[in-house]
Specification:
Layout: H1 3-13, H2 17-37, H3 41-50, H4 55-58, H5 67-75, H6 80-88, H7 98-119, H8 130-138, H9 148-151, H10 161-174, H11 176-179
């Protein structure tokens, strides 16, 4: 599946523009992480792009989130390691690969970074630095839905939290216009 195919399918499945932007942010972070680790950038990016493809469909049945999307993507012939990572990101399976850990840790971090941008005086990603996001990370009530324990699993990738935040923030800053921030 190409990125264009993924975007087309995602646009069909997701009507909420903020959710679509979250998928773009996750795609960007995973692509940057893949490049850092010498992994398949297109594969990792596709996993990030499509990870929440069933979110709107399963919003009233959260235990099905990740399963419905994985089954749909599997029927389209998507690679098994991407399917596995999608199931991992919501806790249906245990992480086994770098891709699994990357998606699992990145998913909530993108929300924390977006929330950090929205509380910044100019509401722009390009105005943020890693220290600003890390200070927000320490405020447990700030962006409470961004699971800090999940984000900290970045150590399973061999990354310190500050390095992980820096990579993801930098990748999101590159697509700030697409994210509207």
């Amino acid at each position: 599946m190409t990125r264009d195919d993924g975007i087309r399918i995602l646009r069909e499945k997701l009507k909420n523009s903020n959710l679509f932007k979250h998928c773009l942010a996750t795609e960007s972070c995973l692509a940057e992480l893949a490049a850092k680790f010498g992994e398949d950038v297109e594969k990792w990016a596709l996993a990030g792009l499509l990870h929440d493809i069933d979110y709107e469909e399963t919003k009233d049945e959260p235990l099905k989130h990740g399963i419905v999307g994985a089954e749909y993507l599997e029927s389209l012939g998507l690679e098994q390691d991407i399917i596995h990572a999608i199931k991992v990101h919501v806790g249906h399976l245990m992480p086994e690969s770098k891709l699994d850990w990357a998606l699992f840790a990145t998913d909530p971090l993108t929300g924390l970074i977006v929330a950090s941008a929205l509380m910044h005086p100019d509401k722009r990603l390009k105005s943020l630095d890693t220290d600003f996001v890390l200070r927000r990370f320490k405020e447990k009530r700030f962006a409470a839905g961004a699971n800090r324990d999940q984000i900290e699993t970045c150590h399973n990738l061999g990354l310190e939290l500050s390095d992980f935040v820096e990579v993801c923030l930098h990748s999101m800053q590159k697509i700030s216009d697409d994210l509207g921030l």
